[in-house]
C-alpha cells in the first residue's frame, strides 16, 4: 500500500516543555487512522506539528513521499494536508458564507470553489440556511460543522480532525459522526483524534494509542474482532467493561 | 446665515473626506495587527513630498495626476517597508503592542526629520489637479476641494468592496480575527500584514497629496490629521473600518461647526472632550457593536 503520511521520531513541544518524545506512525492512502489516549499526551501537539504551526525539534514528517518537516502552514495547506483544529472558533465577525469562501483560499482549491460549496452545503444543509449569519452567533454544533466544511473547501488530500465532536450533545454528535462517515465514504483519507472509541472503531482501520508523547500501541481494527472492551482493556488495563 | 451654513457644510465635507482617508488605514492596521501605528500621519507627509518631488522631476508640462499615481506606488512600498522594518521583527512577542508604539514613534521622528533634511523647512505646494474655483449659488469651492470630496468616497467604497468581496480582503479581515485559524486555511499571515500596511500608507499618502493642492506642505503636516484620525477611530469604534469612515465625516462636520462657533484654538480641545465623553458613555464607539467580539 502507498504511504500517504509518515511520521518518524518526532519530538516537539512548547518552549522548554517537550510533549512529543520521538513519535512515529504511518498512514496508507486508502485507510482511516484513529488516535486516542489520555489528554495532555501529545495528540494535539502532534497535529499542530504536522500542520506546521509548531516547528519540531527533531524527526521527520513526509506527505506523499515529500519531506514537509518544518514547512510553513501555508505550504502544507497548499499540498493538501488540512488540519481541522480542536474547538476552532474561526472568525467571529465574518459571515458563514464568507468563511466558506475563504476556505477555498489555497490556490489548488480556487477553481473548485463552486462545486465544493455545493458539496458542503449538501452535507450540512444547516450552514446553507445560516449563510448570512455571523460565525460568532453559531451554536457549538453549527460551528463544528462549519469547521469541517471549511476544511473540505480547501480540497484536502488528507483531512486531520482533532476531536470533531468534543462538547456536543449526543444528538449533534451522531449527526456530525454521520457526516464524517459520509466524508470517509467519499474516499477522503481521515486522521482522527477522538475520545469516543466506538466512533473510531466504526470509522477507522487502525488505532494508535498515544501515551507520553509516543505511539504506545497499535491496534488493527476488525483483524480479530477487536472491540470496545478490548480497547478499554488495552487503555486502562481493565478486565471488564 | 444661509451662506454660513453652506460654507460649514462644504468645509465639513472636505475635512471629513480627508479624515476618512486617514482613519480607514489606521483602523485597518489596528484591525489586522492590533497595533496603533504612530507613523501613520507621517505617511501623509511623505506622500505629499514624494508627489512634489516626482512632479518637480517630470516638469511642469505634465499633469500633476501622473505624479500622484507614481507617488501612490511609492507609498505602497514605503508602507510595506514600515511593516518589514518596524513591526515584523517583533511578531509573537508578549510586549509587541508596547514595543511597536516605540518603533512606530521612532519611525515617525525619523521620517519627519528626514523630510525636513531632504526638502527643507520652506513651505511648498503641489499643483492642484484642476485649478480654479466653482461658484454655484451660495456654494463656493475650489475645484481641488471638490475633487477631494468626490474622490474620497469612491476610494473608500473601493476599499470596502475589496475588504468584503475579494479573497485577499476577506483574508486581511480573517487574520485580524483569528491568526491560528487563518494559518490553518493557508493564509500567509505576515504577507497580509504587509499588504494592509502598504494599503494604509497609500491611503494616507493620497490624503496628503490631495491636501497639498489646497494648503501648503510642511514636514509636520501629518501630526494634526493623525490626532484627528485617532479621535475618529475611537469615535467610530475600534476595529471597524466602516465605523471609522462614518465617524470621519461626523468629526469633519463637528470640526467645521466648532471652528465657526468656538474658534480654531478651542476646536481640538472640544474634540478631545467629545472623545472622552464617547469613551465614558459609549466605549464601543458610535458605530461599534455593543459587544466587540472581534477584539
Order of helices and strands of chain B: HHHHEEHHHHHHH
Oligomer: heterodimer
| Outline of chain A | globular
Largest sheet of chain A, if any? 6 strands, mixed
Q: How many β-strand stretches of chain A?
A: 10
Number of strands of chain B: 2
| Uncertain segments of chain A | none
Main sheet attributes: strand count, strand direction, barrel closure of chain B: 2 strands, antiparallel
Question: For the record, what CATH class of chain B applies?
Answer: Mainly Alpha
The shape of chain B is globular
Count interface residues per chain for the largest interface: A-B, 31 and 19 residues
Any idea of the CATH class of the largest domain in chain A? Alpha Beta
Beta content of chain A comes to: 25-35%
Radius of gyration of chain B: 19 Å
- Put simply, the count of helices of chain A is 10
Integer tally of domains of chain B: 1
Radius of gyration of chain A: 18 Å
Mean of the pLDDT scores of chain A?
A: 91
Spatial sequence of strands, sheet with the most strands of chain B: 1-2
Pfam family, one (chain A): ABC_tran
Protein name (chain A): ATP-binding cassette domain-containing protein
Keywords (chain A): Amino-acid transport, ATP-binding, Nucleotide-binding, Transport
InterPro entries (chain A): AAA+_ATPase, ABC_transporter-like_ATP-bd, ABC_transporter-like_CS, BCAA_Transport_ATP-bd_LivF, P-loop_NTPase
Short account of what is shown:
With 241 residues, chain A is of the alpha/beta class. Chain A is 37% helix and 26% strand. In chain A, the strands form two sheets. Chain A has a six-stranded mixed beta sheet with strand order 6-7-8-3-9-10, sandwiched between helices.
Q: What would your notes on this structure say?
A:
Chain A: Belongs to the ABC transporter superfamily. Chain A: This is ATP-binding cassette domain-containing protein. Chain A: One of its GO terms (molecular function) is branched-chain amino acid transmembrane transporter activity. The complex is a heterodimer of chains A (241) and B (295). With 241 residues, chain A is of the alpha/beta class. Chain A has two domains: 1-80 and 157-241, 3-Layer(aba) Sandwich (Rossmann fold); 87-155, no CATH class. Chain A has helices at 43-50, 73-78, 96-103, 107-110, 113-123, 125-129, 140-153, 170-185, 197-203, 228-236, and strands spanning 3-14, 17-28, 33-36, 58-63, 66-67, 81-84, 158-162, 190-193, 206-211, 214-220. In chain A, the strands form two sheets. A six-stranded mixed beta sheet of chain A has the order 6-7-8-3-9-10, with helices on both faces. In chain A, α3 (96-103) runs parallel beside α7 (140-153). Chain B has 295 residues and is mostly helical. Chain B has a single domain, classed as ABC transporter involved in vitamin B12 uptake, BtuC (Orthogonal Bundle), CATH 1.10.3470. In chain B, 72% of the residues lie in helices and 3% in strands. Chain B has eleven helices and two strands, in the order ααααββααααααα. Chain B has a two-stranded antiparallel ribbon. The longest helix of chain B has 32 residues, at 2-33. Chain B is globular, with a radius of gyration of 19 Å. Chain B starts with a helix and ends in a 14-residue tail after the last helix. In chain B, 48% of the residues are buried.
Amino acid at each position: 500500500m502507498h504511504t500517504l503520511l509518515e511520521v518518524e521520531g518526532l519530538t516537539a513541544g512548547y518552549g522548554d516543555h517537550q510533549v512529543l518524545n520521538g513519535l512515529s506512525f504511518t498512514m496508507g492512502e486508502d485507510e482511516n487512522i484513529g488516535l486516542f489516549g489520555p489528554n495532555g499526551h501529545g495528540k494535539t501537539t502532534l497535529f499542530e506539528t504536522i500542520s506546521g504551526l509548531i516547528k519540531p525539534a527533531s524527526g521527520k514528517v513526509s506527505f506523499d513521499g515529500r519531506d514537509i518537516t518544518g514547512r510553513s502552514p501555508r505550504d502544507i495547506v497548499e499540498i493538501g494536508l488540512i488540519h481541522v483544529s480542536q474547538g476552532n472558533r474561526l472568525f467571529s465577525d465574518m459571515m458563514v458564507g464568507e468563511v466558506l469562501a475563504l476556505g477555498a483560499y489555497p490556490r489548488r482549491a480556487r477553481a473548485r470553489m463552486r462545486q465544493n460549496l455545493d458539496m458542503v452545503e449538501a452535507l450540512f444543509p444547516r450552514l446553507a440556511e445560516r449563510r448570512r449569519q455571523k460565525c460568532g452567533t453559531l451554536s457549538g454544533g453549527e460551528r463544528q460543522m462549519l469547521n469541517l466544511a471549511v476544511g473540505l473547501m480547501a480540497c484536502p488530500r488528507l483531512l486531520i480532525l482533532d476531536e470533531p465532536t468534543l462538547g456536543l450533545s449526543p444528538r449533534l454528535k451522531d449527526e456530525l459522526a454521520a457526516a464524517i462517515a459520509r466524508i470517509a465514504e467519499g474516499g477522503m483519507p481521515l486522521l482522527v483524534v477522538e475520545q469516543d472509541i466506538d466512533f473510531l472503531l466504526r470509522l477507522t482501520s487502525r488505532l494508535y494509542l498515544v501515551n507520553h508523547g509516543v505511539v504506545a500501541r497499535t491496534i488493527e481494527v476488525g483483524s480479530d474482532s477487536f472491540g470496545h472492551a478490548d480497547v478499554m482493556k488495552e487503555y486502562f488495563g481493565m478486565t471488564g467493561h | 446665515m444661509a451662506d454660513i451654513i453652506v460654507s460649514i457644510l462644504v468645509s465639513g465635507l472636505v475635512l471629513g473626506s480627508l479624515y476618512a482617508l486617514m482613519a480607514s488605514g489606521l483602523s485597518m492596521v489596528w484591525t489586522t495587527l492590533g497595533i496603533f501605528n504612530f507613523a501613520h500621519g507621517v505617511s501623509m507627509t511623505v506622500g505629499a513630498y514624494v508627489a512634489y518631488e516626482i512632479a518637480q522631476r517630470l516638469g511642469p508640462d505634465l499633469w500633476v495626476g501622473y505624479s500622484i499615481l507614481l507617488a501612490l506606488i511609492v507609498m505602497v512600498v514605503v508602507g510595506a517597508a514600515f511593516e518589514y522594518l518596524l513591526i515584523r521583527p517583533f511578531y509573537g512577542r508578549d510586549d509587541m503592542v508596547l514595543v511597536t508604539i516605540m518603533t512606530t514613534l521612532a519611525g515617525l521622528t525619523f521620517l519627519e526629520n528626514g523630510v525636513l533634511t531632504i526638502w527643507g523647512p520652506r513651505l511648498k505646494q503641489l499643483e492642484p489637479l484642476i485649478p480654479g474655483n466653482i461658484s454655484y449659488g451660495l456654494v463656493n469651492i475650489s475645484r481641488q476641494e471638490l475633487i477631494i470630496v468626490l474622490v474620497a468616497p469612491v476610494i473608500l467604497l473601493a476599499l470596502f468592496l475589496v475588504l468584503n468581496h475579494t479573497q485577499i480582503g476577506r483574508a486581511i479581515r480573517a487574520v485580524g480575527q483569528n491568526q491560528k485559524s487563518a494559518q490553518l486555511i493557508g493564509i500567509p499571515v505576515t504577507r497580509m500584514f504587509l499588504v494592509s500596511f502598504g494599503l494604509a500608507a497609500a491611503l494616507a499618502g493620497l490624503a496628503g497629496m490631495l491636501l497639498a493642492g489646497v494648503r501648503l506642505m510642511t514636514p509636520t503636516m501629518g501630526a494634526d490629521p493623525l490626532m484627528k484620525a485617532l479621535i475618529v477611530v475611537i469615535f467610530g469604534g475600534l476595529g471597524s473600518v466602516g465605523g471609522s469612515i462614518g465617524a470621519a465625516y461626523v468629526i469633519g462636520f463637528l470640526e467645521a461647526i466648532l471652528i465657526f462657533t468656538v474658534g480654531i484654538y478651542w476646536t481640538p480641545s472640544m474634540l478631545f472632550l467629545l472623545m472622552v465623553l464617547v469613551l465614558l458613555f459609549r466605549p464601543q464607539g458610535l458605530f461599534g457593536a455593543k459587544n466587540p467580539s472581534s477584539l
